[in-house]
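Researcher: We're teaching a course module on how sequence relates to structure. For the next exercise, students receive a sequence and then see the predicted structure as tokens, so they can try to spot secondary structure elements on their own. Here is the exercise chain.
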Amino acid sequence: ASLNYFITPNLVDRALTKPAEGKVRTLFPDPAAEGRRYYAKTGIYPINHCVVVRRSIHEKYPWIALNLYSAFVAAKASIQQKRNAILEPHLATGLLDDEARKALADDPLPYGIRSSRHVLETIAQYQHEQGLTDRVVALDEIFAKSTLDL
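Model: And here is the predicted structure for the students to work with:
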């Protein structure tokens, strides 16, 4: 697969040169297998996106955090409904077995602080261990109080 590299400085990637051929490789020989092993061991599927609202906006419109959460939950439910309709014939005919059905029933990326608490607290711990924060930052310091029980 071809990797795209930025050739001018920008806010995303400040590298000006692409790595020499053969110098970049994955950390694990089989990243998919390592991902499955890690998830089975820890229950953590790494979060790589987060919705952020500027504090001044949240203070002016305190309902915004809950409305954003509700919008994302509704969008996810819609996609899951469509996914289930597509998968149903495969499950009904046995092309996907009971193990696949059980795996599809589990949501490795649940929305909300309560559902993601273990992952978020682990990330906070890792940030501190890696020197990115001077202490483990509590979730109630980061997230809107109205979202902590979601």
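Model: If you want an answer key for the exercise: The CA atoms of residues 125 and 136 lie 6 Å apart. DSSP finds six helices and no strands in the chain.
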